[in-house]
Design goal:
106 residues; mainly alpha; Arc Repressor Mutant, subunit A; 41% helix; 4% strand; DNA-binding
Amino acid sequence: MTVFERIYAIVRQIPPGRVATYGQVAMLAGNPRWARVVGYALHQNPDPDTIPCHRVVNRQGRTASAFAFGGEDMQRFLLEAEGVGFTPEGVVDLEKYIWHTDVDNR
DNA sequence: TTAATGACCTATC
DNA sequence: CGATAGGCCATTA
């Protein structure tokens, strides 16, 4: 069991219409300092079908420039399709759509 | 085993 | 506000 597996498990638990930051996923995975590892894990993205990487964004609510999912536009499209709103700045409104976890506060 | 890398985050200039 | 530097960790070569 590698850290990647844990990260994937967390990402899979992100509900539709909600987004989570790398730091958030890292914290849920077990360590708050796995933010980079989370990015690295998603970079591999062994199962794009079951791992909604587009729901994982950085602290700015923005996606990676090197997003190998189809482009940043693709991610924005997917998130909008799920009901996630964007700010005029072109980033996700983390204050409203960030995932707070089920146990903590839905 | 050592060295290098990376889809990050925070603080500072 | 934008750009730069450093820190942190696991994975890969």
